[in-house]
Each structure stands twice: as structure tokens, then as C-alpha cells.
Amino acid sequence: MKREGEKLYARVFRQVRAYILQNNLQPGDLLPTEQALVEMLGVSRNVLREAIKSMELLGMVSAQPGRGTILQHFNLDFVFQNVIFAAAAEEDHAVAEMLDIRKRLELGYMRVAYATLQQEDIKKLRAIMDQIHERWKAHQFFHDDDKAFHMALFAKVDNKTLRSMLDAIWDVDANFKTEEKFKYLDDTIIKHENIVRALEAGNDEAFEAAMLAHFASGKYWHQGRSFAEY
Fold first, then answer.
1. What span, in angstroms and rounded, lies between the C-alpha atoms of 153 and 106?
2. pLDDT at 125 over 50
3. How far apart are CA 55 and CA 12, in angstroms?
4. E strands, the chain, where?
5. 33 CB contacts (<8 Å, ≥6 apart)?
6. pLDDT tens-digit map of 91-107
7. For residues 218 and 188, is the Cβ–Cβ distance under 8 A?
8. Continuous segment of H or E residues that includes residue 211
9. Nearest CA to 64 among 39, 40, 33?
10. 0.70 exceeded by pTM
11. What's CA 135's distance to the chain center, in Å?
12. Where does residue 13 rank: exposed (0-12), middle (13-18), buried (19+ CB within 10 A)?
């Protein structure tokens, strides 16, 4: 079935993927030969090769001369990193939409995350917070520490897909409007501090309020025109 506006190689990509699933192929298994796939799908070699190349870029298969095209082990982190990076490209609205997704994921899972955090986890968050304070005193940007803070919040949530998505979105966010972000880092630090203090006090209501306040800025609203607070 062809989707409106879909390129031919993308349709072939879906057909090959469907073949893999229908035949329960496993990592290490070979796909049919190029000639067999061309005949099966009714497309040219060039279109098939473009589809297979796309699968290679996503880490789904590996084309090996003399052996054929081999199914690879599925790596969720690799797939999300590539797909999200490609979708974002240099389009600010795409990055803003991804930040909106991250907001909804973190707020949706915050109660689950709270229930998983132990004292050693909270101490780790405090140590990251101390590092953030030190960097900001030296007027240094602390994106990596900010990412580490949020990933630590959700580190013990039993959902690998959630963590993979968050990790990928954080990497896209790294170079997004850094000059504008810099103006609001004082507020960012206060919001992070409130999250840690709520955890240290064992106050779930304060934690939820601090998380909601953290995501109240324009950065996490994909239609917002600036990072200023609403």
C-alpha cells in the first residue's frame, strides 16, 4: 500500500521490514538476495539499494560483500539518536516540538520516578546540583550536568524506551538557542534546587510542584516565541 507523498524507497523500506517480521528473521539471519528482493517487490536495483542503505544507517542491517545483507541486533538507543537527529536537522520548530514531548514524558512519569528514588539516588542528584552551582559560579554552561540530573531522575524507571527517547532529545537540545538559554540559567538552577530539596524532604507534593514549575517556561512550549516565563 502506497502512502500519499511517500517516496518509492521508503515504501520498499517498509516492505522489507514487513518481510523481516513476517518471517521472524533474527539477528545474524540473511535477507534474500538482491535479485530475489527486486523480483519480489517489483522495483529497480537502485530503489532497493536506497532502501537497504536507509536500513543500514539505522543499524537494522549490515550489507557485507560476499555474504549478503545480514540482520543486526536491534539497538534502540542508536535508532532514536539517528531518527531524532535527522528529524530535527536545523529546524527550530522540530526541536521545540521534541522539547514539548520531553516535557510531557517527564511530567507523565514523574510520580513513577519519585517512587523509585532511594537515598543514594537523591545524594547523586545533590552532587550533580553542587556541580551545576560550581559551573555557574564560573559562568560556564552546564548542559551536560543538566542532562545528567534529569536522566538520574528517571534512571530506575522500568522503561528503557523512555530513557532512550529522553537521552536522544537531550542530545538534540545541546545546541538549541544556547544564547537565549544563558539568560535564564539563574531560574533554571533555582528550579533544579527546588526539585532536589523536595526529594531530600521526602515531600512528593513539593516534588510534583517543583517539576511543574520547571517545565513552565517557554522553552517547553513548542508554540512559544521565547524562553521567558508565562
1. 9
2. yes
3. 11
4. 61-64, 68-71
5. 68
6. 667 778 888 889 999 99
7. no
8. helix 204-214
9. 33
10. no
11. 25
12. buried
DSSP string across 50-80: HHHHHHHHTTSEEEETTTEEEEPPP-HHHHH
Which residues are paired to 68 by β-bridges? Answer: 64
Cell of 185: 540559567
In the DSSP assignment, the letter for residue 86 is H
61-86 burial, b at 16+ Cβ within 10 Å, e below that, comes to beeeeeeebebbeeeeebebbeebee
Please give the grid coordinates belonging to residue 225. 516565541
Q: How far is CA 62 from CA 41, 69, 101, 140, 179, in A?
A: 20, 6, 31, 42, 40
- The DSSP call for residue 217 is B
pLDDT in tens, 132-167: 999 888 888 788 899 999 999 999 999 988 998 898
Find where cell 555474504 sits. 67
Residue 137 C-alpha cell reads as 559560579
Q: Which three cell numbers stand for residue 107?
A: 511530567
pLDDT digits (tens, 9 = 90+) for 45-62: 999 999 999 888 778 899
**What are the cell numbers at 98?**
521534541
Q: Which residue has the cell 542491517?
A: 61
Please state, in angstroms and rounded to a whole number, the distance separating the CA atoms of residues 73 and 65.
19
